[in-house]
């Protein structure tokens, strides 16, 4: 009787490392030289058998273009908000900072006339997030997900437009707040637990993918909960594998689209 071999599913970070190496036009040995590790280690990364350390994720981000660098940096635990905060409080930033004049513009570059509401284009990503307790697309970060289209919305709806994207919800565990097929706007700049208690957040897990839950704080524990009490809460720690990837800003009913 033949034994059925278990198929190994390569995690998103493994695919992203392969994609980065191929875009750089180098082999595993050359990437290993740049990362100061062995070619066997690179091979294990790309096959999903070994997850890079935080230091190696940062190095990978340093090799990547800006559009993909944050995927690796976020895997290392680096938060955009903390980086910006550090830059804004550095002596050099104060010396270089002036008082720039802000001019709202249309997408074609024309200045918005006074009285008109400035708009911004937000990408609708090709990904599904499961409501709490239900699996979503297996993604570790929102930054590597391509967009299917864009929606133009008032810029005042997005405190961080460059970090805001739209995703569709699957499942009903967050009813009556969120319903199946709703579109949620997610701000991936806001990931600090301390500022998100009581808020809806999008979280990622290597096995169950993207999910939307409500973040609560009980004594010393951060807990992810569904609106429906039929679903068990989940403790949010590194040990359980869950990671916040963004705050839900607002949502659009799927029945209105």
Q: Could you characterize what this model shows?
A:
Mean pLDDT is 81; it is low at 92-112. The chain folds into two domains: 12-78, 434 Repressor (Amino-terminal Domain); 119-256, Umud Fragment, subunit A (Ribbon). The protein has 257 residues and is α+β, with helices and mostly antiparallel strands. It is built from seven helices and nine strands. A hairpin with a 3-residue loop joins strand 5 (200-205) and strand 6. It is globular and about 55 Å long.
Listing every helix as H and every strand as E from the N terminus to the C terminus, the arrangement reads HHHHHHHEEEEEEEEE
Main β-sheet description = 6 strands, mixed, barrel
Q: In which order are the strands of the major sheet placed?
A: 1-3-4-9-5-6
CATH topology of the largest domain: Umud Fragment, subunit A
Structural class: alpha+beta
Task: Name the beta content range.
Answer: 25-35%
Radius of gyration: 20 Å
Number of domains: 2
Work out the helix count.
Answer: 7
First and last CA, distance:
53 Å
The CATH architecture of the largest domain is: Ribbon
Task: Give the rounded overall mean pLDDT.
Answer: 81
Low-confidence stretches: 92-112
Per the principal axes of the C-alpha atoms, what is the gross shape? globular
The CATH homologous superfamily of the largest domain is named: Umud Fragment, subunit A
